[in-house]
Write a structure and sequence with these properties.
The structure is a homododecamer. By secondary structure, the first copy, chain A, is an alpha/beta fold. Chain A has 5 helices and 5 strands, in the order E-H-H-E-H-E-H-E-E-H. In chain A, about 55% of the residues are buried. Chains A and B meet through strand 5 and helix 5 of A and strand 5 and helix 5 of B. Strand 5 of chain F pairs antiparallel with strand 5 of chain I.
Chain lengths: ~140, ~140, ~140, ~140, ~140, ~140, ~140, ~140, ~140, ~140, ~140, ~140
Amino acid sequence: MTVQVLNGPNLGRLGLREPEKYGSTTYPDLVELLGKTGRDLGLEVQVRQTDDEAEMLRWVHEAADAGDPVVLNPGAWSHTSIALRDALAMLTARLVEVHITNIHAREEFRHHSYVSGVATGVIAGLGVQGYVLALHWLSGQADT
Amino acid sequence: MTVQVLNGPNLGRLGLREPEKYGSTTYPDLVELLGKTGRDLGLEVQVRQTDDEAEMLRWVHEAADAGDPVVLNPGAWSHTSIALRDALAMLTARLVEVHITNIHAREEFRHHSYVSGVATGVIAGLGVQGYVLALHWLSGQADT
Amino acid sequence: MTVQVLNGPNLGRLGLREPEKYGSTTYPDLVELLGKTGRDLGLEVQVRQTDDEAEMLRWVHEAADAGDPVVLNPGAWSHTSIALRDALAMLTARLVEVHITNIHAREEFRHHSYVSGVATGVIAGLGVQGYVLALHWLSGQADT
Amino acid sequence: MTVQVLNGPNLGRLGLREPEKYGSTTYPDLVELLGKTGRDLGLEVQVRQTDDEAEMLRWVHEAADAGDPVVLNPGAWSHTSIALRDALAMLTARLVEVHITNIHAREEFRHHSYVSGVATGVIAGLGVQGYVLALHWLSGQADT
Amino acid sequence: MTVQVLNGPNLGRLGLREPEKYGSTTYPDLVELLGKTGRDLGLEVQVRQTDDEAEMLRWVHEAADAGDPVVLNPGAWSHTSIALRDALAMLTARLVEVHITNIHAREEFRHHSYVSGVATGVIAGLGVQGYVLALHWLSGQADT
Amino acid sequence: MTVQVLNGPNLGRLGLREPEKYGSTTYPDLVELLGKTGRDLGLEVQVRQTDDEAEMLRWVHEAADAGDPVVLNPGAWSHTSIALRDALAMLTARLVEVHITNIHAREEFRHHSYVSGVATGVIAGLGVQGYVLALHWLSGQADT
Amino acid sequence: MTVQVLNGPNLGRLGLREPEKYGSTTYPDLVELLGKTGRDLGLEVQVRQTDDEAEMLRWVHEAADAGDPVVLNPGAWSHTSIALRDALAMLTARLVEVHITNIHAREEFRHHSYVSGVATGVIAGLGVQGYVLALHWLSGQADT
Amino acid sequence: MTVQVLNGPNLGRLGLREPEKYGSTTYPDLVELLGKTGRDLGLEVQVRQTDDEAEMLRWVHEAADAGDPVVLNPGAWSHTSIALRDALAMLTARLVEVHITNIHAREEFRHHSYVSGVATGVIAGLGVQGYVLALHWLSGQADT
Amino acid sequence: MTVQVLNGPNLGRLGLREPEKYGSTTYPDLVELLGKTGRDLGLEVQVRQTDDEAEMLRWVHEAADAGDPVVLNPGAWSHTSIALRDALAMLTARLVEVHITNIHAREEFRHHSYVSGVATGVIAGLGVQGYVLALHWLSGQADT
Amino acid sequence: MTVQVLNGPNLGRLGLREPEKYGSTTYPDLVELLGKTGRDLGLEVQVRQTDDEAEMLRWVHEAADAGDPVVLNPGAWSHTSIALRDALAMLTARLVEVHITNIHAREEFRHHSYVSGVATGVIAGLGVQGYVLALHWLSGQADT
Amino acid sequence: MTVQVLNGPNLGRLGLREPEKYGSTTYPDLVELLGKTGRDLGLEVQVRQTDDEAEMLRWVHEAADAGDPVVLNPGAWSHTSIALRDALAMLTARLVEVHITNIHAREEFRHHSYVSGVATGVIAGLGVQGYVLALHWLSGQADT
Amino acid sequence: MTVQVLNGPNLGRLGLREPEKYGSTTYPDLVELLGKTGRDLGLEVQVRQTDDEAEMLRWVHEAADAGDPVVLNPGAWSHTSIALRDALAMLTARLVEVHITNIHAREEFRHHSYVSGVATGVIAGLGVQGYVLALHWLSGQADT
């Protein structure tokens, strides 16, 4: 099983951006961590990041065509992009929404996510381990 | 490390209650699953459920005194109990809020949780595996 | 057919509490009235009251297990308890929500009831006769 | 005692209109049922329906002049007609608002009724039996 | 100059309806009072009342065609009828909105009037003298 | 196929009413235009207008009974009449809602239409050609 | 009878301020007009204006002590001053609130007046004649 | 005179719970302080705390029966429990609501208290001395 | 006359995406249909789609420069992009907003469109025929 | 220690103003009562009242400069004056906000106080004794 | 050209008041700085401050009469004074609103300014240099 | 010091777009003006514009890495892009938000800017001179 791990705007700056909030793991560290986790779980994990909504939509369209499950950290688009929600609604496999921080304990405008309404589940506030847990969960579901 | 897994109202009915929404795992199955997960992870896991808010507050007070991390499925109290939030704010160890269903994709009145504002992180919509992931994550944090 | 007549907080004070609003029938009078009504209709009527939400949830769980129809006066919990709503959603038989006063003509915060969304029907403002009408209606449905 | 049973817009279509929601009783069936109920209770029951708000206001004015109690199913006007509310506020006898469906479990815009604020009581969601119960209740009140 | 004095729903009941709020002047008294006022001012005053929105719209259309100024007590339609507002927007002469009671000191839902947005001016709370003042004002404007 | 073209309040004033907003086509012009369009398309087109909600409801009931598609310009009732919405929900054929002006670019209170929720589609802001397009579309659907 | 005519902030600029909105009558013209009106009606009319809220409160306190009726144009304080409302609530004689423009047809923030809730009546949009009408009305009431 | 001092959820944790917010006085210290204050004032002071809403309701019912004044710190129930408000509305003696912290300077959801609407008065933000002041005040009222 | 038909995000997936909602016509089918319609009407029709907002803005700028009318299906950007609205406000020719589905009968967040406020007209819910009607209408306007 | 007791608009009318709400103690009585309380407590108490916001701001500035604690009854300015709040934020000593009536049980617009957000504590509904309690409390704090 | 620099409530306390927010420049420093800036730019700059709204209104009236441009720091009145807005609307020359702090990054109630709606432009958050920039800008406009 | 002047969507159209609102300065004029201003001030000024949010984010990331201050006209993204806000929050040097028009005096939806919450200051409504002032201010800060 191939899992698409897709990251939205500013996440390429991980480790550089407000580390007291997002932790010190850099984006390359994250890619490596998830690659290793994938190998341990026997999953093919493809990790990508973009600040370009059009590119993100294309990746989601491809995942929809391929029937791949998706782990998505939509970043700030969670709260503003209905286009992304519409693309995600076309997925046929599972979608896990991941947020590194606990968005529910931050500013009011981060409490609502358009993505959550079409996601299978949500993990927030558990740092980069949130991605790892999402992969574990998808792997477990694959067993079913 | 002892982890308190605390469950709020109606969760004793798991498996009986709207199984198309909550799955067929019964509450005793859940207790067993988490016991086993704990043993695998080397954690002492104490799983309890109550429909009585006073009892829940007492358990949270005890966890605060003991410094135990908590995995909490607050059920419907998420949306209505500020008393529970206040008790949880006294915890010194980590708190993971778990919801079996994706509350963000359900009725509007389930989108806001008073608990989230004082939780470390939130896992929703991943079924009873959400508890398992929470234990894994706490276990990993313990390593730190 | 057994019908569960369940009463929420402060209803044990009936007749004592703001009689100009709730009437002079006392709670024991109510129990007697409904017992008599049940006998007339050939229904087994069990009338209970509690100020303890956990106890109410247990009674609702029992009614769900027994398949009994329920006549419920949720009192103030109507407006605040999603836990009660969730328990009631498990009922398989009919649920009639009864309010002694016309809650729609009182304070704004009494206009919304979480219970109504999962009830079969609602009777409000007809005094303690509201319970009697509910029993009559359930009895008529039983004939069908 | 004469009781006015007044029905608002679209209720002449009963039995034809969304029967899965409103039941299969037709409007003529309803008239007959209430006539029979009236005879059993020793009440003179006058059942009327109109799609014309002016006609409804005239009927309410007449009931106010005659001092007749009213059983009213205001249909969609519940949510929009302050003129009807104002007319009803002139009634000197009791007013029971009846809805065939449980309006509280339907669309948000059906949750508020301008009529309820001036009604004695409300019965909703008990089908056409709601009218019958209202007559029973008025009959009982007449005994007092 | 002909002035149309138009009255909306329930105003035919003046003097009968909640006299502590609306005063003891009856509708025929009002017609006579305004007739006399008109004669004193040298105005042709036509006073009409209807509970039928379609009739009201027709009267407004006629006033628009005739270029007559209008004194309108829209009653409860103030708060609910955009159709009436749209008709009034076609008037070419002045429009004075009159309310017998001070609607701003009553229920919240009476505070907004769709009519006010297209009226020249508004008089509220001065009893039936409000109509008289409106005629005086129109008469004075005519002098200009 | 017979198509009912129904027009709500104030639309009989077309061409007279705010022509800079609604254009100079008069209502008789509209009737003729739609008659001609119908003949071109081989449709029987019945064009009617009323300021009387009860009459409109009757026409909708008839269309429901006949299974006729409807082109409806609800005028101001769009924003206020749930009774009209309820009647329209009984239609079995297609319903196209037409507005001569672009209601979404006008006052806030014109942005929401109760009719849209039960319509097949909506055309707004294209002037009286909006009706013509609606007939063309219905005609095309009839081909299917 | 002495009538206090009190004017709030910026009204001393009448005739200078946005004359297309407030007309060309200057404040001294207004004082003269009301003086003359008073003499005609046999009323002692005292006309004052202030931009100073404390001074306005003092005038209202004096009117309360003297039992004088008040004609008040509160200007912008209508929408913001609860202190003024509280002072006005102490009046024992009648209070007529006057606005030169139709505040209900202007910006949203001018639609609510704290004064209206404690006024006997309101006149808006009839220009400076609104004051004259208010005096006439008070004069008529005095006759009673 | 007996005064009931009733404390709601989490208040048993006083001194342990967020001492920077609630101070270092422990709950036993509070009980002792109030006992001493009572003796000084010649009042019989009964101090109790519960996390159980049903128990709180019972205590309020008893105070209502006994005619005892109540000093109540409802804790988080202030903001959520209408059942508590309803019970308190039955009190015949005075009710003083006390909050240790200034709830108006904390989170938005702590700004509204259901209890305040039925309380005689409220003291907030003055620490545990708030209780002492409440007793002094009740004592003074008793003198009257 | 050249008409720009511009399509926003996810519309390239037409026919693949939720066909029960959007129909089975694919995007290439749509391009062909509109090309043919253009030829029939003697219009030069340029059909484009993009998931990239910057590209869409550029196309709108070009249409503004060329003075071309635009048929725009903004997709999800309708509800979120003020940048698109600002670009569209620069158009000098007509703008018809088209939605394949009836957005007014879908989720609340789809009811408001920033585009509508600057569009000439809107067609929604008539499937891909909505584009065809828009071209017909523009063609007819061109005749004027 | 000098304590500033500052009173806002209309409070000079105490005893005259709605005595059923504010009690029969006059403002001079209040000054005397607080003077005496101050002497008993060994505090220098300066009691002032103004209807002039600028004067109030000056007094607050002086208290800020002197480091005096303040007992403030802001009257209606509580709900409207951010300028007052800003001045109070400069105080370095304690601030107790006092309201004679229970503002939380009055009109909705009195429930929010801009002052509370910068006050140490709040006393409401305990009549003029509220001031006395505030002085006692400040005196006790001074002991610390 | 004379420029009026007007400062609202509490600004006389500049340098004393929350210096971490407002900076250490005192009000006399500000006056000097602006005087010097004016001399450099060849502008006559009149700098005044008041805590008295009536005085501020008078200054604005004078500026309106003189046709002077205004640099205004309305302080807290920005958010509450419609009277000030109304006075400013009479200005014929330019108005620049200046805030020392970035009000958009502070409490919610500081985000809306009644002044902005009638200002030419707004400068916020640039400290006392904001005034200097405003003078530079006005000077540049004068060149035009 | 290098200052980044970044411009968001549609700003490349300056001078072409609604010149009555945005002025007649074209975008190339602006680039030249700011270049010259920079040279006068001894600043290196880099002026760029994009309609592509991804490109804007990249520029902001670069400015964050370089520690450059930023002058940003976010255009319509002000009101909708949380991604842009998140990127800007990473800046370590000053950020001045510039709007050519006074957004606070335009449509409601332009009153809130996500950028303002993370900006040092805001300049709006002063035309293209707003950019010049921002550069002057940054230059002055650099002196510190």
